[in-house]
Specification:
7 strands, four-stranded mixed beta sheet, single chain, three-stranded antiparallel beta sheet, alpha+beta
């Protein structure tokens, strides 16, 4: 992701606040501190906690990640076939679970992935499949 802005954390001066372009005009931000110890303990699964962060990626990026993680011997789930998309899960060095998601369809012109999924779910309910 492209780093688009960095500033001191206005609440904790010894930290930096990094803003990254996550794609499609969306930003994701991180607070970093040079002296903070890395803690690979998985994040707790609790109400209010972040379960995982998902990024929609192209088929090419997905394949590069599958092969790159395998080649590096980095722990991951491998490809998980979800029917309408493939997922790949792994943990970052601080224990956060990351998902790379690759949709198996391209929305029609003027429609978003979310619109297609909403329509599919509604259609399945009408047909008694969901």
């Amino acid at each position: 992701m492209l780093l688009v802005f960095e500033q001191p954390n206005l609440d904790v001066p010894e930290e930096h606040h990094l803003f990254f372009d996550a794609g499609d005009g969306r930003l994701i931000t991180f607070f970093v501190r040079e002296d903070r110890a890395t803690d690979p303990t998985p994040m707790p699964e609790a109400v209010g906690a972040v379960h995982h962060i998902a990024y929609a990626v192209s088929p090419e990026v997905f394949e590069r990640a599958v092969h790159g993680l395998a080649t590096a011997g980095y722990p991951n789930t491998g490809r998980v076939d979800r029917g309408f998309m493939d997922s790949l899960y792994f943990r970052d060095p601080n224990g956060s679970q990351i998902e790379l998601a690759c949709y198996k369809f391209t929305p029609p012109e003027g429609r978003s992935v979310a619109m297609v999924l909403i329509h599919a779910i509604r259609s399945m309910r009408v047909l008694g499949e969901g």
